[in-house]
Amino acid sequence: MGVFWGNWGVVSIVVLVANTDAAEGSINSPQDNLNLAGDGQFCDAAAQPCPGQRLHRSKGAGVRGAGEGEFDWAGQDEELAHDHVTKDGWDGNGYITFCPCMGNFGNQIEQYLGAIALAKVVNRTLILPPFYHVYHRARQLQNVPFTDLFQLGALRQFHRVIPVHDFLTILAPEHWPAGQRRGYAYPFGGECSLTQSKYFYKDLNPPVVFDDCVPCKLRFDVNFSADERAKGAIKNLWSNSFSPQSHPVLAFNGPIGIFPMIAGNRYLQKYLRWADTAYFAVAQVYISETFGKDIWVAIHLRNGEDWVKACKTDLSTLAYMMASPQCHEKKIGAVTKDLCLPSIPHMLELTLQVFQDVKAKHLFIATDKHPHLQEFRMLLHPLGVSVHHLNPDIPQVDLMILGQADFFIGTCTSSFTSFVKRERDANGKPSIFWGQEYKGFQ
Ligand SMILES: Nc1nc2c(ncn2[C@@H]2O[C@H](COP(=O)(O)OP(=O)(O)O)[C@@H](O)[C@H]2O)c(=O)[nH]1
Ligand SMILES: *[C@@H]1O[C@H](CO)[C@@H](O)[C@H](O)[C@H]1NC(C)=O
Ligand SMILES: *[C@@H]1O[C@H](CO)[C@@H](O)[C@H](O)[C@H]1NC(C)=O
Ligand SMILES: [Mg+2]
Question: Are 417 and 104 in contact (CB under 8 A)?
């Protein structure tokens, strides 16, 4: 069934953390192994498109996931991968879109997955909004198109989607003309305001101006693993309130999926496949040059100032915190300090247990702030294990790498970790979390 927004105490923590995320863009940790800093080859701050520069590689050339996931998307089905939308291709069942404008990348992806689930159930085409922002070493990238990071065709295996730019340039002029555009808002605090969306949609290309604002009271998410009857009830409620005839385009001013996302929708991650970009190539080259055919363990350390502050909350009163439902049941007292911000002794102890067990040759450390290289090297060099840290130009490269490790240790409360965990689950790769007793990777 749908889950209503509730538990305002927890929601307000999420908002607090999302706001402080803005300060964490600069990643100052030292580099190791591969020097990408200032390398204009991958992302020239002055040039477009960025970061989604395409590689012109031959069909099926070693794209991630080949033979691992449920489908091998490499170079398949050009029909699905490209837009052949014409102005006659209007979907009579209507469209839905949103602004993924809460929090950072991990949060935005969860909002995206919630939106994908809802679009599927209400059977409207999802207009794919750009990511609100993506951090880059040189500058913050605003409104990064979905297709700069992910494959269109993979998502189309699940549902009808269209990039917002195509929608606005091909379909909107005739079917959703200026002067008839309504924005939709969840009534936070009872107000229907388009301030936020005006800001967001005005930055689209072409920009969207709304003439009207419609409050939406259907404040719940779809649980994709729920039964068809429950999903049918949601569909009916939505179609009765917003028929495609009178509400052809539901353009929301904010996220339409809750955070943290509903567990039943996590598997939808398998339809998010990294696009074949220069960034993806950086990750692949790094992996093959650093690890070769050896077994390697990857860890995610979330420890920037915003995180340290968030984890100072009185955890004992919370049933869950931020992304923590990914690693435990929601119950009071379940969030411990080591789940949120693991201590160095705990991290070293768990890492040692893992290396004694899995006999890997390398450790890869991804972090928003402190990689603790010295500590991990002192621990692992005696075992003949080498320790690596990349500090890439954009955090997505770390995600690409973390997803492919043989073993992964993540931060339970972090949605950056959640991305990795969901992707690894989809590919049958094992993961564990800091702050939990080590019981092996089975
Ligand atoms: N490069 C890099 N950046 C990270 C890492 N962990 C966190 N970040 C940055 O910090 C942000 C954290 O925000 P978010 O993705 O919403 O995840 P959450 O705050 O941990 O739930 C990320 O989007 C990145 O910009 C990491 O391991 N590597
Ligand atoms: C969903 O929408 C598509 C496209 O408009 C349509 O072809 C299909 O019949 C719809 N499915 C249902 C179950 O209504
Ligand atoms: C989602 O649906 C499944 C199957 O009906 C159920 O087991 C699960 O508890 C639901 N989860 C949520 C968060 O509603
Ligand atoms: Mg965040």
Answer: no
Q: Considering only CA atoms, which of 316, 336, 313 is closest in space to residue 324?
A: 336
* Residue nearest (by alpha carbon) to ligand 3 atom 2: 226
pLDDT band at residue 186 using 50, 70 and 90 as cut-offs: confident
C-alpha torsion 81→143→220→316, nearest 10: 120
3-state DSSP call for residue 183?
A: strand
Q: Whose CA is nearest to atom 7 of ligand 3?
A: 226
Report the interhelical angle of 105-122 vs 415-426 (nearest 10°).
50
Does ligand 3 have an atom closer than 6 angstroms to the CB of 265?
no
**Rounded Cα–Cα distance for residues 40 and 429 (Å):** 33
Q: How far is the CA of 116 from the centre of ligand 3 (A)?
A: 17
How is residue 294 written in tokens? Answer: 């050896």
DSSP notation for 77-136: -HHHHS----TT---TT-EEE----SSSHHHHHHHHHHHHHHHHHHT-EEEEPPEEEE--
Q: How far is the CA of 236 from the centre of ligand 2 (A)?
A: 14
User: And the tokens for 332?
Assistant: 């009071």
Segment 428-434 shows an average pLDDT of 98
- Of the candidates 268, 246, 243, the residue with the CA atom closest to the CA atom of residue 257: 268
Calculate the average pLDDT of the chain.
Answer: 82
Distances (CA, A) of 318 to 9, 223, 311, 332: 9, 23, 12, 5
Q: Is-contact 93 124, C-beta < 8 A?
A: yes
Residue 432 pLDDT more than 80?
Answer: yes
Number of Cβ atoms within 10 Å of the Cβ of 73: 22
**Contact (CB, 8 A) for 242 and 250:** yes
List the residue whose alpha carbon is closest to atom 7 of ligand 1. Answer: 368
Find the ligand nearest to 266 CA. 3
Strand partners, 302: none
Compute CA distances 323 → 8, 258, 260, 303, 437, whole Å: 15, 11, 5, 15, 19
